[in-house]
Amino acid sequence: MTRLTILCVDDQREVLAALRKDLTLFEEICDLIECESAAEAEELVEKIAAGQGLLFLIICDHIMPGENGIDFIARLDSEGRLGHTKKVLLTGLADQTDTIRAINEAHIDHYLEKPWESEGINRTVRKLLTAFIKEEGLDPEDYAGMLA
Question: What is the pLDDT of residues 36-90, one digit of tens each?
């Protein structure tokens, strides 16, 4: 079985802790990595790619110091560095213009509003995992019980 990676990006440690808590059931098949900025996340994306790992999912906050989440995801996506990686924008402050940019430029797969519900985020991750497994041609039996 190929281990997958979920990368959580948010400048607030308490948000990262809440994400880790809500995503613990995926630790059986995924490494959960947290970082507090787009710059730190970009370094991790490079390390994962260099190690031939599979970055399954980025859950990224929108409003962060430095580069915001939409700009970060859009840039990596336009550079072709994300492949089939699924992208979730996590925010409580996006307006309609931000949301449109997230969809059209960053090609996000899902939008989650803060605060989120544990059950909702797990359902979303299961759906995205199922799509990712199909797109990557991985054996679904290896991830049984985690798929939607």
Answer: 999 999 999 998 888 878 999 999 999 999 999 999 999 999 998 888 999 999 9
CATH of the domain at 109: 3.40.50.2300
- First vs last Cα of the chain: how many Å apart? 18
Distance CA 97, CA 105 (A): 11
93, 63 contact by CB (below 8 A):
yes
Collapsing DSSP to helix, strand or coil, 59 comes out as strand
* Residue 136 dihedral angles phi and psi, to the nearest 5°: -85, -10
Q: 77 is in which domain, residue-wise?
A: 4-135
Q: 53 near 45, Cβ under 8 Å? A: no
Are the CB atoms for 54 and 2 separated by under 8 Å? yes
